[in-house]
Each structure stands twice: as structure tokens, then as C-alpha cells.
Amino acid sequence: MKEKFQPKRSPQTYRKRNKTLFLFVCLILFFFSFQSQSNARLNECLTHLSKADKQVNEKQVLQEFSRKTMTRPYKFPPLPKETEDQVAILVSQEPITDEFIEQLKNQFPELEIRHQFKHVFNGLSLKGKTDKLEEVEKFLNKRSMNLNMKSKNKITQNNGAQTQQLLNTCQLFPSYTYELEVNPIKVKQLHKPNSINYIGTDAIRHIKDKNGNRLTGKGIKVGIIDTGIDYNHVDLRKAYVKGFDFIDQDPDPMETKGLGPLSTFHGTHVAGVIAANGKMTGIAPDAEIYVYRALGPGGIGTTETIITAIEQAMKDNVDILNLSLGVSINGPDLPTSLALDKAVESGIVAVTSNGNAGPEIWTVGSPGTSERAISVGASTPELEIPYLQYDRQLFRLKPIVGSAPWNLTRSYDIIDGKHGKKEDLANLSVDGKIVLMKRGDITFTEKVMNAKNQGARAVLIFNNEDIEITAQLETEIDIPAAILTKAEGERLLRLIKDKQTLAKIIQKKEEDLLADFSSRGPVTYTWDIKPDLLAPGVAIESTVPGGYLALQGTSMSAPHVAGAAALLKQANPDFSPAQIKALLMNTSILLQDEDSQTYKPFEQGAGRIDLVRAFHSNSIIQPASLKYGKISGSKFEEKTKLITVENISDEPVHYTFSTPPRSDAINWDLPMPFTLGPKQKTKIKIGLEVKDEHKQNQIFNGYLTMHANSQTIQIPYLYVVNEPNYPRIMAFSLETTKQTDVVKYEVYLPGGADEFGIALFEADTFQFVEFLDVVKNMKRGLVTKKAKLKRKIHSGVYIAVAFAKKEGKEDYVEQVVEINQPQ
Length: 823
Known about the structure:
Layout: H1 11-32, E1 37-38, H2 42-49, E2 60-63, E3 85-92, H3 98-107, E4 112-117, E5 122-129, H4 130-157, E6 170-174, E7 177-179, E8 183-184, H5 195-198, E9 221-226, E10 240-245, H6 266-275, E11 288-293, E12 300-302, H7 303-315, E13 320-323, H8 335-345, E14 349-353, E15 374-379, E16 383-390, E17 393-396, E18 398-399, E19 401-404, E20 411-412, E21 414-416, H9 422-425, E22 434-438, H10 444-453, E23 458-462, E24 468-484, H11 486-498, E25 503-510, E26 533-536, E27 540-544, E28 547-552, H12 554-571, H13 577-586, H14 601-604, H15 611-615, E29 619-622, E30 626-631, E31 638-647, E32 653-657, E33 666-669, E34 674-676, E35 681-690, E36 699-708, E37 711-721, E38 732-736, E39 742-749, E40 753-762, E41 768-778, E42 781-788, E43 796-806, E44 809-819
Parallel strand pairs: 9-11, 9-13, 10-11, 13-14, 14-15, 15-26, 19-24, 21-22, 22-23, 23-24, 30-37
Antiparallel strand pairs: 1-44, 2-24, 3-5, 3-6, 4-5, 7-12, 8-28, 16-17, 16-25, 18-24, 20-25, 27-28, 29-31, 31-35, 32-34, 32-36, 33-35, 36-37, 38-39, 39-42, 40-41, 40-43, 43-44
Helix pairs in contact: 6-12, 7-8
């Protein structure tokens, strides 16, 4: 008999399937490993591509904040042909009727209708040959046109009394691939207070709900859409109630086990932060956990599995829903973002990670772009960070994952180890010293191992580019190793050459800093402020199968907020998702950088959550951030927003606004002081007027300060002037078809394009071949199209460069493509 808690995934179960899966993962990674780039740097980029990167086998994560595209000589499987099955998501503005489904089946009998969505939105997931899905899209567009014409005729017959924007009633989206990026981190964390208590969890435990229960999440249903859960973990057995596996289509959401590097632990880690109840105590240890496995081996899932999981969570009537996942597309209209908006409308507090693509602006990705969900960025809890002290100067160290802790208590000599190659170290006295090396030529693992073999006490590697990197060794090495920035490494190198002295390691406490990797907003097109708030996301210790592990990422931040929302829901069962979101934002703490400068709203939202302030708040202000949208920037232009002020206390509350700092750009029209009685609420207007001509294509943002008796509430605001400097092009993929002279491409344009095109280059010589397509005034959003080769070319590997220009700014994305021509 089958036991419910038996892990069912074994190497034998997946052996055949994983061969196909692994090729598919490689292909998807190949399709989506792109970075946006300024067109002015095209020649620099193409020159860079010609250089062999000798670190191609290094197990490291490179976060390229300069958005430089780096293409390596990948070995990749054949690109999918047009005859292969694909999955697409149909989103309809009208209800999907049985008649419509029958019509689809009759028109396209070879099409598989996999799921019908009724809760997240009206829609279907479809599977079929690529060419058939294209025919479906044409069919839907024609149907939309006919429906729009009927609507237009009705409006005309009504003598123009009504107006209506004619939109496509149906739209087809590809089922994007979601892949988790998980970074173990070897930073020593202080266990008291840990990240769970750092947000004030222990300080509010004594508060009781209306039934006299302490705040532990009792009676609250928390859904987790992730890689599954190890429900046999001793800390999670009590919390787990039920779930479903949308990868294997069965009711057993166990993590992927026994598959080596494809085994997963992410969902278990997330669940521990929310509801661990054992050796570790989560934020809401008595919450009921519902787990939906939508990410399979290797942490890979699709739009289809995630939306289906959201749909099931809505059917299960969960109170809170956590999604620590995302794609890199900054757009508000992707199906996952729309689905989360619907979940919130149904009464669910939806929490999602904001992404790990920071610190560049515009890096938030879907579903972090959801308007109604709580999008969470990452901050640091209280940590001990190693610093190197040399000649009274301090250098912040970024430990390399897989190296030993920086527990060095003595003073040491530092020597210049060049690039750390064997010949670089051969004639040096390395024994017992710290070796400083420059990145490049060989891998991090080789550098550290070479130094260890010569008796080095520790290794410092400074970057050779002005970008942030997080490095990981291929195997564990028992000496400390860390990364320095290019500037700091070069400064330290000059110091050790100019003055010989000893270095020592000191530990410094750091807290409440914005994590570099945390994605920034705002959202394109809607200009929404994201993230909404921050929570600890660095060195977060939590449950994993077989034990515990410290991880970093906004994936770790989101469950802190989900757990906090569960406690608020327990204490205030009648609060709506909008009230809980606003309350958490209203009471967050604004953070400042190391230079005491307040982070911007599109970096931190309303700040880092604080449960003590949330549970003692006397008011809710919603919306908790002011999105004024796009303005022309002309003199005397005015914008007004309405907000609701609610006194949730049992005492009268007097409200005032602080006078904003003087600005040459805008004047604020703020309400006069007013008072609300217990449980009263009112709407007020907050207006701004353009005081002087604004600079074009800029983002204007900041905070308004409101006082509710002695409580201070910071309200983020943001507006943009015309077309700000967002990436003009995002997701881009190009593939061959069964027609040898035809290719198909998909591209996401956040704001459309005045000019769009795809240029083809030889991969080895970077010689221009031809323009595959050039389009004027391309629409915004997802575009799927075919292009025909204009002349016969030889079979081989090419680089396709897609470029988009809007309001004078041009960006491009490149992709390697294999084109096979008949002999």
C-alpha cells in the first residue's frame, strides 16, 4: 500500500524523463540568457564576444549590473522545430463558454486543451504544434475583430452615447519558463536575534486574537507555490495539511529527491520561514500549510503550472499565498501577474518575491509586477561581515561560497599573487600569508586551490570589471576566500606595494541595508512602485530536506511577509488583502545606505516591515503608495490622487502632513489637519502641480510624511515624465521553422517601439548578414512573428541582434541561433 508520506521521486522514476528535461532546461537557459544593452555599446559588445572566456566552467553567479551581454561558445542541443509541441496560455476578456471550446475543438481537432481557468481569469492552456498555435492566434484575432465590429455597431446605433475602447477579447501568451536562482551563503549570522525575530515577531507573540489565542498563525491557511515541501521534516510535519503536484499531476507535493543537482529544497526553505515548528520556529508556527508543487527538478516550472497552482489555491480558499519565483520580464500584463491580481480580488493576500536582478533600475520581473500583490525586496538582518584592515583602511570582503569561514585571529602578510596561476605563485613565499589575486585566466577554484597547495592562509580575488559578482567554488576548500571589487582590489594592491605592514580580519555588525541583488522597479507602462516593501533576505537560515541551510534572495524575503500577513489575518480576520498590504507598508521603516542616504521608493518601496509597529498602528492609509503615472512635465500641469484614511483604533486620531522639502519642480496640495473618531474613515485628495518645466524622460519620486497622533507614516510617491529610461526590449527568442528560409521570433516590448528590427551576424567573424525584420511603430507587449531570410545563407551558427528604439532611446538583445540550410 502507498503511504502518503513516502517520497516517491527516485532516480529510476526520472531517468528517462530527465534526459529530455535536461536538454529542455539547457535550451531554455540558452533562449533566455540575455541582457539588455545600450545600442551605443554594440561594437564593444561584439568585440568582447570574440574573446574566449576561460571561466566558462566556474560555478559562479555573475550579476552584471552594467547590463553587458556576454556570450560564450555554448554547446547546445538543436533548436526546437516547428513540428514540436508547445504550450500556450489563452487569456480572454469574456467568459470561456462550452460553445467556444467546442468551436476550438472542431476547428483544431489536433489541439489539446489542458486546463480551463475560471478563477484567475477566463482562459485556457493549450498544447499543440507551433504552426497550429499560430493558426489559433489568427483565428482568435479574427474572432476578436468580428466581436469588436459588433460592439462598434451597437455603440453607433446608440448615437454615440457610450464609448468603448476596442480591444482584442482574447490573447495568446507563451508558457514562459521559470527557473529558481538559489545562492547558499557562508556569512556568519547572529542567531539572536535571527531574521524571524528581527522583524519583531517575538515582541508581538503576547498579543492575543479575538479567541484568546496568542499570535502564531492559528487557523490561517497559507498556500506556497514552489518546488514542493519535505513534509517529513521534523519542523514541518505539524504545519503541512495537503497539497498538489502540478509537475507529476498527483496529490503528493514532495520535493524532488535523489536526483543530484536537480534535487530541490527551495519550497521547504520557504515553508520553514513561514511555519516551522520544532528546532526552528517560523513566523506563524501554527499556520496550516497548503503546498503546490509548480517547479520540478532543478527548480524549473512554467507559466502553465504556476497559474494552475494559483487557480487551485483559490479553490482551496487559502488566506495567504506565497510565490518566491519569477521571470525577468518587467511587464504588468503577463498571465502570472494578472492571475495574482485576481487572487487578491478573491480575498487572498498574495505575496511574491521582487527578483534578484539588482541593483539596476527596471529589474523587477513578473509576477512581482502584479499591482495588487505584495512584492518584496531583500534587506539584510543583523549580520557579522568580515573586513580586512590594512594600514588603517578597511576593505569589505564578500566570502566565496565553498570556502572556509573568515575566522582569522592573527595578523598576516599580504602578497601579490598576480592571477593565481601555478607559475605566478611558484617563486613566491606564500606559506602562512594572504594572497591577493586578480580575477581572470583561470577559475576561482583553481586560484584558491593553487594558493592552498602553496600553504596560503587565505585568498582575496579582486574583480577585473566594474560589476558585482557572487562566486562559488566547484568543490569545498578549507581556507577562507573572498571577492573584492575592482576598485578596492586595485587600491589594496597599491597599498601592499607602497607600504609593507600586517593585515588583520575584523568582524563588523551590519543591518538594515538594501541587498545589492534585490531587483528594483518601477514597473514599466503602469509606472507602479515596486517593491512594495522589504524584508530580510540575506543569510536566512531555514529548513531544507535533511536539516537546515542559510540562503539569500528575495525568495527568502517574501515568506517573512507571508508569515507576517498570517499573524495580521489571525488578529484581524475581517481585514481585506488591501488593508493588510497597506498596514504593513504604512508601518515599515525607511532604510538608508551606508552614506545615510534614504533609498528611493523604487528601491525599497515603503521600507522594511516591522511587526511591532504594524500591531500598534492606529491607522491604515490606502493605497499606501501614490502612483501618479506619466505626465508631460509642462508648467502648471496638475495631478490628483484620492486616498482613504481609516482610524482603526478606539481613540480619536488627529492627522497632519509635514511640509515637503522645498522643490523647484513641484508644489504639493495637501489637506488641512483633520480628526477622525474611533473606526471612522474618510477620503482625502493629494495633489501635485508642476512648478517648472521638467527634464524629459526622468523619474521623480520621494516620500510624503503623514502624522497620525504620535505615529509617523511615510507614503512613497512616483511619477515619470514622458518616456523614462526603461529597457526598450526585454524577452527575445528566435527559432528556426520547418521552412528553411523562415524563422519565428517572440519579443516583449514594454512600451512598444518607434523602430524595431532584427539584424543577423556571422558568429565567428561578426560580419553583418542581413536584417531579418524591420518594423515601424511596433505595439507594446508580447509580439510573435515570422520573418523570411532575404537571401540564401550557409548553414551554421549566427548571432541575431534584436533592437528597439522609443523616444530617442535604443536597446538591443542578442541571441545565438543555428540555421540549417538544405545542401
